[in-house]
Every structure is written in C-alpha cells, then in structure tokens.
C-alpha cells in the first residue's frame, strides 16, 4: 500500500465517519437526559430529503442545511410531545418515528430521486492544507466535517466542565431529585431531544448535500441504528463516540480498498464489513452487562410524570 493510498484512506475515513459522529453525539445528549429516542434513522432521512429539496428549489446549499436541521427538529418535537408530555412508551414511539420518517421522506423526495446537484465543496484551510500528509487528511475537508469537530469539542467540554452538562446528567440519573431541587426536568428533556433532532437533521444534510450530493430513498443505509449502538459502545462518552465513528468509517470503505487491491472475495461479503463490525461490538457490550449498566443513565427510557 503506497503512501498516497494510505493518505486517501484516512481522508475518506474522516468523511465517512462524520454523519455517525453528528447522529451519535445528538443521541448521547438525548440519552444523558434520560430519553431513549430510537427515531434517529427517520430523522436523518427527513433531514436528507428536505435538505436536498430545499437546496434544489432555492439553489443554495446553505439553505438546504438549515431546512435539514429544522426537519430533524420538527420530527423530534413530535417524539418529545408523545414520549415526554404524553408519557408514551419511548421505545415504541421511537420505532414509530423511524417508520414515519422513512415513509414520509420517500414520499416527499419521490420527484427528486437520482437528481444530482453540485453540493457543498471542500474548503481547504489556507496554509494548513499544504502541510504534507496532515494537510490532506485533516485540513482539506468540507465545512460540515470541521463543524462535527467543533460540536464534539463543545459537547465534550459541556459534560466535563459546565453546569448545563451537570444539569442534563442530573435529569437523566434521577429526574425526581432534579425536580426537587428546582431543575425544570421537562424543559431540559425537550431541549435535549430537540438538539438530538437538529444533529440528526444535520447528518442527513451531510449525506445528501456533501457525501453523495443527490437524493435516493433510504440513503442513510442504517446509520441511525449504527449510531444508537455506537452510543452504547462508547459508554455515553463523547471521545469514544469520535473514535468509534471513525473506526466504523474505516470499516465502511475497506471493502472498496480491498477490491481495488485485487482481494479475492465477493463484493457483497466485503460490503458487510461495517455491519459485521457493529454486531461484534454489540456482542462485546452484552458480554459485560455489569460494566454497561454502570455507565447507563439510571433513568434512561423510564417515564417521568411531573409532580403537580
């Protein structure tokens, strides 16, 4: 494997892992507040569809990103109303949201299937992008890759050093105790859910406006589900989410690399690599249930009814 090929693999790994970082970070914040939202796949698809449609109609990719974020937030508001206000079962509500988002995105985007746009171009950072090896790998990406790093840094700092992070964790560990000391549990959970929806919508915009600047039904390819597994695998820690997303990104492109190197195997078998890696991760998690339980927010998925 030559040096240029290795550089390109690392570059592609960062691009491939970006949507997973965005989805998983948003879901981590949501779950830290005690809410389990399994509707990530539907929110990503809605973001991808409406973001692409807005970009085509307006001719501005930036407006497409805004539309995608709003689409994710609108879907998350629906989930929050059912799961938080009406105290419905969070698992069932999240699954229904995924089914709803998958169907609605396919319906809305039916007239745009196969339509391609220019999308968001890479933005090499002056001077830094000229550094050998590092410049290509780290400083020659599109703006959304850089934004994913900024969001990671902010979320990492928030839960490590701020009162807001402590508040979200308190709500996710014991909402009754948090309410007793004056924390507005419902508002915190609504805010966390909205943030998760915005991040999922942004990930959808990345898929349809950057990664493959076109729309096709089901283009998320299960990334919402993989991000959910990634949050558990990372033990609800932002730095582990970053690492896990890039590991999955590497697994996702290796089948193309191996085919290019002449590796004798079925292309379909090689394409299973990232999903096989996800299954292995889940098996590892299940093998140490006690450790996983220690990292899990205590009130995750449990209904909360405010005292009146």
TrEMBL record:
A Pfam family recorded for this sequence: BPD_transp_2
A molecular function (GO) term: transmembrane transporter activity
Membrane topology designation: Multi-pass membrane protein
Keywords: Cell membrane, Membrane, Transmembrane, Transmembrane helix
CC per GO annotation: plasma membrane
Superkingdom of origin organism: Bacteria
The protein, known as: ABC transporter, permease protein
Transmembrane annotation, as ranges: 6-30, 42-59, 65-87, 94-117, 137-159, 190-212, 218-236, 243-263, 269-286
Native organism: Oleispira antarctica RB-8
Localisation per UniProt entry: Cell inner membrane
Classification via InterPro entries: ABC_transp_permease (IPR001851)
């Amino acid at each position: 494997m030559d040096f240029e090929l290795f550089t390109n693999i690392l570059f592609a790994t960062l691009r491939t892992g970006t949507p997973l970082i965005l989805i998983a970070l948003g879901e981590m914040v949501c779950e830290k507040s005690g809410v389990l939202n399994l509707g990530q796949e539907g929110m990503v698809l809605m973001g991808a569809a409406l973001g692409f449609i807005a970009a085509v109609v307006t001719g501005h990719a930036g407006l497409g990103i805004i539309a995608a974020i709003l689409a994710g937030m609108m879907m998350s508001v629906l989930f929050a109303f059912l799961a938080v206000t009406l105290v419905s079962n969070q698992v069932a509500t999240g699954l229904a949201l995924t089914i709803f988002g998958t169907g609605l995105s396919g319906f809305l985007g039916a007239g745009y299937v196969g339509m391609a746009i220019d999308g968001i171009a890479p933005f090499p950072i002056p001077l830094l992008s000229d550094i050998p090896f590092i410049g290509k790998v780290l400083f020659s990406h599109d703006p959304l890759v850089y934004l994913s790093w900024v969001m990671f840094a902010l979320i990492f700092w928030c839960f490590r050093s701020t009162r807001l992070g402590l508040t979200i964790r308190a709500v996710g560990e014991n909402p009754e105790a948090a309410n007793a000391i004056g924390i507005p549990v419902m508002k915190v959970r609504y805010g966390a859910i909205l943030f998760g929806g915005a991040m999922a919508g942004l990930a959808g915009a990345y898929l349809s406006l950057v990664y493959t600047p076109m729309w096709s039904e089901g283009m998320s390819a299960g990334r919402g589900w993989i991000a959910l597994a990634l949050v558990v695998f990372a033990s609800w820690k932002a730095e582990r989410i970053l690492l896990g997303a890039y590991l999955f990104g590497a697994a996702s492109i290796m089948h193309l690399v191996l085919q290019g190197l002449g590796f004798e195997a079925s292309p379909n078998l090689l394409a299973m690599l990232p999903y096989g890696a996800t299954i292995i991760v889940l098996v590892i998690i299940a093998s140490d249930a006690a450790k996983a339980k220690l990292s899990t927010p205590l009130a995750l998925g449990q209904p909360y009814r405010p005292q009146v």
